[in-house]
Amino acid sequence: MPNAILLKLLAAAIAIAGATGQAQVASFPTKALRIVVPTSPGSGSDITARYFGEQLGQLLGQTVVIENKPGANGVIAAMAVKQAPADGYTLFLGTNTHMAVNPSVVKDIPYDGIKDFKPVSGLARGMMIFIAPAGSKIGSVAELVSAAKSSKQRLNVGNYTAGFQLSSEWFASTSATQHVNIMYKGAPEVFTALMGNQLDWAVSDLIAAIPQVKAGKLRAIAVSGDRRHPDSPEIPTVRESGYPDYVNYTWTSLYIRSETPEAVTTRLVDTVQKILATPGAMQFIAKIGSDPMPLAPADMRRFQISETERFRRIAEGAGIKPE
Fold first, then answer.
1. What is the DSSP code (8-state) at residue 35?
2. Digit-coded pLDDT (tens) for 129-151
3. Exposure pattern of 18-39 as b/e (b: 16+ CB <10 Å)?
4. Does the fold of domain 127-241 match that of domain 9-126+250-317?
5. What per-residue confidence (pLDDT) applies to 19?
6. Nearest partner of 193 among 157, 143, 161, judged by Cα
7. Given 3-state DSSP classes, what are the helix, strand and coil percentages for the chain, each rounded to the nearest 5?
8. How far apart are CA 256 and CA 30, in angstroms?
9. DSSP string spanning 162-225?
10. Which of 79, 97, 121, 283 has the fewest CB neighbours in a 10 Å radius?
11. Is the pLDDT of residue 121 over 60?
């Protein structure tokens, strides 16, 4: 008899716990959310996170806080999300660097971009840009290659993510040149180094660099897309400059921990998809020089896996090993 009573009490406790959990999921969100960004304020990822964070907060009726955790090729930010509760309140603004490139360039990476996280939605895809100091003699891909081959010392190239580093290494391999990669925390630091003539050139996302180019503070060399950007048609592509196979893009996507309840995941997915379908989001994405990439979770996962494999092949071809 006591055992029967205990079993009934246990069953009741489980039912109450389940009902409480379902109620918590149904009422999600009941507090502020946060989006962890792996780059500095002012970077392309940061600007993207702030726009979508504001829109997400308006639709969900909660504040969305942006937390910048730059450094270590995004490992610091990714681990902050991995170690947070799997309740949907902590999102990760992941990019091609952190979710597809890092496995090929970061040794003993402490997170698995496929297993530890699941996509909420793809957001946007944007071009990279090669840039140089405003007073540099390097103003084209041909001049960059010529300078690299004629210089007694290797040219210094600045980057602030493993994705940009891999892009510069890929170009070096493709153009049969050698460069010294110097890693910075974020775009502002790279731009400061360029303006101080501490770097010969750099790779950046277009959104962060183009205002500096238009202000005459930096010099554009080329963009990495398959076509010129409509807002900056005067800047040629690397592809048309003699390297037809060199086409590369950055991309952004929102992620949450893989163990997040499905009902919470669905709420976030539906909300972000609604945002992406608005004219405001379309205008924002165009303004930052990107293309919409509203991939649903399953499609984003397949794309991420294919990108991881693509970057692995690029790294191997360029002779890059994890370090």
1. E
2. 999 999 999 999 999 999 999 99
3. eeeeeeebeebbeeebbbbbbb
4. yes
5. 44
6. 157
7. 45, 20, 30
8. 17
9. HHHHHHHHHHHHHHT--EEEEE-SSHHHHHHHHHTT--SEEEEEHHHHHHHHHTTSEEEEEE-S
10. 283
11. yes
Determine contact, residues 25/263, Cβ cutoff 8 Å. yes
CB 233 within 8 A of CB 151: no
State how far the Cα of 111 lies from the Cα of 115, in Å rounded to an integer.
Answer: 8
Residue 257 predicted with pLDDT over 90:
yes
Tokens of 11: 């069953």
Q: How far is the C-alpha of 10 from the C-alpha of 15, rounded, in Å?
A: 9
Peptide bond into 29 cis (omega under 30): yes
* Rounded Cα gap, residues 193 and 180, in angstroms: 14
CB contact burial 218-246 (16+ within 10 A = b; e otherwise): bbbbbbbbeebbeebeebebbbebebeeb
What is the distance between the alpha carbons of residues 269 and 259, in angstroms, rounded to a whole number?
A: 15
Nearest residue to 207 via CA among 321, 48, 29, 61:
48
Residue 207 confidence class, pLDDT cut points 50, 70, 90: confident
CATH number of this structure's domain 127-241: 3.40.190.10
Cβ-based neighbour number of residue 13 at 10 Å: 10
Higher pLDDT, 231 or 80: 80
- pLDDT score recorded for residue 17: 44
For the segment 42-62, what is each residue's pLDDT rounded down to a tens digit?
A: 888 999 999 999 999 999 999
Domain 9-126+250-317 has CATH 3.40.710.10: no
* Residue type at 71 in one-letter notation: G
Give the distance from CA 183 to its chain's centroid.
16
**Structural tokens at position 13:** 């406790």
What Cα–Cα distance (Å) separates residue 164 from each residue in 28, 109, 136, 229?
A: 37, 18, 21, 19
